[in-house]
Specification:
heterotrimer; B: about 600 residues; six-stranded mixed beta sheet; C: about 190 residues; mainly alpha; Arp2/3 complex 21 kDa subunit ARPC3; two-stranded antiparallel ribbon; 6 helices; about 70% helix; globular; transmembrane (chain A); transmembrane helix (chain A); membrane (chain A)
Chain lengths: ~280, ~600, ~190
């Protein structure tokens, strides 16, 4: 069960050199902007910027290729689902109707629908590279400190650090537990019938949860013994001061965000309408 | 030092130890003082500590020993403040740490005085890298970053671990994680260092390194050191000032190692005595404090050589019968979790029917991987595994489990039902066995495992050792021909070790073939009929334990260590050292299984 | 209720470990169903149990952190509307089960009913209101699509939590029974 995950590798590029805090801020604002706007011009511009940034980071393709395939499948299914459920949603949104071809039953392909789904695709294409990049170029060690810096309470930030620290351990536990369960004939794979599978899941989850509860006791004891939570503030070994590159990145994302919002909402609608 | 022992010996028995210690340590001030201290956990009906009186002085190095459940861990929890701040209960008497009464201090304030290194290396390694984990206490104290980086480096330097500052915990061994934890405690300037079973999860070599490291820190920093352990011989590798013996919640001994080792306190409290003393006892020697029995290097053997020689001449090393019929054959097996990173390389060995075989090797040598391949959790990339002459490669995990049972190290990973009976019945139920047959077979197995009186108990009410037995029972009920046990005795004290191993030995005598993955040298010596030693994914030795455990190359490659029996033979000049170890093992087994 | 900055160390650790469990179970123990992009998620049984054990703040944060990490690490793309819905789910279960003292082994018929009522309400709010509404607001997806997905998720999650979650809670509460009442049988 060796499953690939997106993992950080240290490279020396302008993107890697940014502090975690500015990467996080960039990612959050970028994703929020891309979520809100539906303006095709802005999305296209953002897509170009995303591709440029991705290229600058020089992350090797094989580090994320496996995720890209997953994303494409998910994305394809979602596009099909949108069309199947609402073939004329684009018509509704843009207020005009230009048929291309009648398919079957009540399914007619329209330019409006095509354009709407193109925009949905574009929104993905804008967020995915930056999302991937954020994970690939951010040192997990720096992550908690960054969260804390952009205003999240240090305790919650440390929860995230603990999650990152113990994911491999828990995966190991899960593997051991499911191996020993399988040896006793407890199967949760597709070979087993659905109802039985649910029941068998409990037989695997219970030891996992009980060992995790025990683990929580141990870790929190160790943390208490080393003075966690004593002060209102805490410092971070991995925190880094902001440098020139960081200010440039932050300025850039602020400009992009403001510009996109202004352009998009100048006409009072999230949507850029090419049909009127 | 010599003069001190001399002085000490002149003190008549029964005179106050405190007076002696004050003399020795030059009127140092007490840093831990228990006075008529009792403690009872909220959930328990009996107190765990009764009327404890114990004073530990600044700069002392004290070892606290006792069997599981004796209250020694509770004592530790009182010192580092987990009691009363984490574990509630009723206290009486007084406890002062660094002059302050304990109820005045919060646990975080106390953490400035007492640094704790716990048993579980993963639970306390909370950082994503070594450096961050060492810095953890400083981060919480809001120490400025520049200062922090300097202090982290210094602490890492003290434990000689600066090359690993960027390493993640998943790439470290148990010993390396412990070094990190130790540095994380040293970084904070706490004057008392408390080690709660620091050797529990370490192999013999790493254990020895840890004991040496603790000793060096004690000498260099002069901090007060309190070690809680039941592996007495290993801690006594380096001098300690006093040993405190705890049993049933009371302090039953408070003396120097030399004094302790000539009493029968170890036997009555169930703590394993050092091997060299074991041998001397077998030879009928009387041990006195004057002989300085605290360490194999210091012990004076003048009066022992003759009886030891006589004993040696009478004992014969018996050749173990080699089983004719291999039940399991591992043939040229190679394996790696990732391409290009082989874990096992061309490993071959055989297991004979009815044998007890130990598989030993340091962390990452591939010993656990072998067992996972045998059980079918992973598939070998080359080679094959043959069971009773049949290639297993087509068999699923479940099919293999009919013949080969696997008991994990951590019983909690296997226990998935709240009730004991259901747990043991689980494997049969998933195989669709009739409920009447299940009842019959479960009851039979529970009787074999000594669990029958508990059959309607919830598992949570059982002790760790009993839980371990339940997992063995739940495998045994499937009637396998081979059982593989991963560290069957890890974390158990001498009494539970004996109980567990006698139980497995009994199963073996009824015909069960047993494979144990272990680095417990006592286990190999006392019960292993053969030891297969792995290093760097290759098999480097395959012989009877008495021969494996004396080969310097093998010992070093597998992170084992030379036993003190070897040193005893050299020092006394009795017999050839390897032969001496072999005869000791033969004699010892003769006593166990006449 | 204490604010998030007043969380105890144990709750902080429970959030971290709970999130790690959410990630692992979300990846390895989810069973595909017939509705696109929707799985039978065993994780929600875990989330409901942790909300019951460690309270509403833990429920909220495990939902948010766990779901974000799962999406990010395995799919490279956090889907915010459903992440927020997961958080709300944990929060509601935690709030509505605050008076069940499961740590003392208390989980009988009444508690079981209350737990399931809580998870039903939480599922309805999260998957029939929060997730689809956010999908429409954030992603401008067609309403009928997101509501069908929401209904699918609500039904499958409610059933999963009712079966797996309840069994886990019962089993957990049984591990908390005290010694003393037990005697050996011959």
């Amino acid at each position: 069960m060796s499953v690939k995950m997106l993992t950080y590798t240290n490279q020396n590029t302008p993107i890697h050199r940014l502090t975690g805090a500015s990467k996080l801020l960039f990612f959050v604002l970028w994703a929020l902007t891309a979520m809100i706007i539906y303006d095709t011009r802005c999305l296209l511009a953002m897509f170009v910027i995303a591709v440029v940034i991705f290229a600058v980071s020089r992350v090797p393709f094989k580090q994320y290729s496996f995720v890209l395939y997953l994303i494409l499948i998910f994305f394809g299914l979602n596009q099909i689902a949108i069309f199947l459920f609402s073939p004329l949603y684009g018509v509704e949104l843009y207020g005009t109707r230009h048929d291309i071809v009648h398919l079957f039953a009540w399914y007619t392909l329209t330019w409006e629908q095509l354009f709407y789904q193109f925009n949905v695709a574009l929104k993905y294409a804008v967020v995915v590279p930056i999302g991937l990049l954020f994970l690939l170029v951010t040192d997990p060690s720096e992550f908690a400190a960054s969260l804390n810096r952009i205003g999240v309470s240090y305790k919650v930030a440390y929860s995230v650090a603990i999650a990152l620290r113990y994911i491999p351990d828990i995966q190991q536990d899960f593997q051991n537990i499911s191996f020993s369960a399988q040896a006793r004939g407890i199967d949760i794979s597709r070979k087993e019938k659905f109802g039985k599978r649910l029941k068998n899941v409990v037989s695997i989850l219970l030891p996992l949860i009980l060992t995790s509860v025990e683990r929580i006791e141990k870790i929190s004891t160790a943390m208490e013994l080393r003075g966690f939570g004593r002060g209102k503030k805490r410092t971070w070994y991995r925190a880094r001061p902001l440098r020139k590159g960081d200010y440039i990145a932050i300025a850039m994302i602020l400009i992009i965000t403001v510009a996109c919002l202004v352009i998009t909402f100048a006409d009072g609608s999230r949507f850029y309408n090419i049909f009127k | 030092m010599e003069r001190i022992w001399q002085m000490y010996r002149d003190i008549p028995e029964g005179s106050g130890h405190v007076a002696a210690i004050e003399g020795r340590t030059g009127m140092k001030k007490p840093v831990i003082e228990f006075q008529n201290f009792s403690f009872q956990y909220r959930a328990q009906s009996e107190p765990t500590l009764h009327e404890v009186n114990l004073t530990i002085y600044e700069g002392e190095k004290v070892l606290i020993v006792g069997p599981s459940g004796s209250g020694k861990s509770t004592l530790a929890h009182c010192i580092n403040g987990l009691i009363p701040f984490m574990y509630e209960g009723e206290r009486s008497g007084t406890l002062r740490i660094a002059g302050e009464t304990i109820s005045d201090q919060g646990i975080t304030l106390l953490s400035d005085e007492v640094g704790t290194v716990m048993q579980d290396p993963d639970g306390q390694f909370v950082g994503l890298t070594v450096a961050e984990d060492i810095a953890f206490k400083l981060e919480n104290d809001a120490v400025p970053q520049a200062d922090m980086i300097k202090r982290v480096f210094e602490a890492a330097d003290t434990v000689e671990f600066t090359d690993f500052l960027e390493a993640s915990p998943h790439s470290l061994s148990g010993g390396q994680k412990q070094k990190t934890t130790l540095a994380g405690v040293l970084v904070s300037d706490a004057d008392i260092l408390l080690f709660d079973e620091p050797l529990a999860s370490l192999d013999p070599h790493t254990g020895q390194m840890t004991v040496e490291l603790i000793d060096r820190i004690h000498r260099e920093t002069g901090k007060t050191i309190v070690i809680i352990e039941h592996r007495l011989e290993e801690v006594l590798e380096r001098p300690v000032d006093r040993v405190i013996v705890v049993n049933e919640g009371r302090i039953v001994g408070d003396m120097t190692p030399d004094e302790l080792l000539c009493t029968d306190l170890l036997r009555t409290t169930g703590i394993r005595e050092p091997l060299y003393l074991n041998a001397l006892h077998y030879a009928g020697c009387k041990i006195t404090a004057a002989m300085q029995p605290g360490h194999i290097d210091s012990i004076q053997l003048d009066n022992c050589i003759q009886p030891l020689q006589q004993w040696y001449n009478c004992v014969h090393q018996d050749e173990l019968p080699v089983s004719e019929h291999p039940v399991l054959e591992v043939e040229h097996v190679s394996f790696g979790y990732e391409a290009g990173k082989p874990i096992l390389h061309d490993v071959s060995f055989q297991i004979g029917k009815g044998e007890i075989v130990c598989i030993a090797g340091r962390n990452g040598a591939g010993k656990s991987t072998i067992s996972k391949l045998i059980c079918g959790f992973y598939r070998p990339s080359a080679g094959r595994i043959v069971f009773n002459g049949r290639d297993l490669s087509g068999d699923t995990i479940k099919e293999r489990a009919e013949h080969i049972g696997f008991v994990m190290q951590n019983p909690n990973h296997m226990l998935s039902k709240p009730l004991l009976y259901d747990e043991v019945a689980l494997g049969l139920r998933t195989r669709g066995v009739h409920e009447d047959t299940i009842r019959e077979r479960v009851h039979e197995v529970l009787k074999v495992c000594g669990l029958y009186p508990f059959r309607s108990w919830p598992i949570s009410a059982l002790s760790y050792g009993q839980k371990k037995r339940v997992t063995i029972a739940s495998i045994l009920v499937l009637e396998p021909e081979i059982m593989i046990l991963d560290e069957p005795t890890a974390g158990q004290d001498f009494r539970h070790y004996n109980e567990m191993m006698e139980f497995l030995n009994q199963l073996n005598r009824q015909g069960m073939t047993i494979i144990m993955i272990t680095h417990d040298m006592h286990l190999m010596m006392e019960y292993g009929q053969r030891a297969v030693v792995m290093a760097d994914g290759k098999k480097i030795a395959d012989d009877c334990p008495s021969r494996v455990l004396v080969q310097p190359d093998t010992i070093a490659a597998a992170n084992l260590k030379q036993t003190s029996l070897h040193a005893l033979a050299v020092k006394s000049g009795v017999g050839e050292p390897n032969e001496f170890v072999g005869r000791f093992i033969a004699y010892d087994r003769g006593l166990r299984h006449p | 209720m204490a604010g998030s900055s007043g969380l105890s160390v144990k709750t902080i650790v429970a959030i971290g470990i709970g999130s790690a469990l959410f990630v692992i179970l979300g990846r390895f123990a989810s069973i595909p169903s017939f509705i696109p992009n929707t799985n039978i998620e065993v994780t929600y049984a875990l989330l409901a149990l942790f909300a019951l054990l460690y309270g509403p703040w833990a429920g909220l944060l495990i939902g948010l952190i766990g779901h974000t990490l799962k999406d990010a690490i395995f799919y490279g793309q956090p889907w915010f509307s459903w992440i927020i819905a997961s958080g709300i789910f944990g929060l509601i279960v935690g709030l509505l089960t605050r008076r069940i003292r499961i740590a003392d082994g208390e989980f009988g018929g009444m508690e079981m009913l209350r737990f399931n009522l809580a998870q039903l309400i939480a599922n309805v709010v999260s998957w029939l209101v929060v997730a689809p509404v956010l999908d429409i607001l954030i992603y401008s997806e067609p309403a009928n699509k997101v509501f069908v997905q929401g209904v699918g998720a609500a039904i499958s999650n409610t059933l999963t939590v009712a079966v797996v979650g309840t069994l886990l809670a019962i089993a957990y509460s049984k591990t908390r029974t005290k010694r003393g009442s037990l005697s050996r049988e011959a």
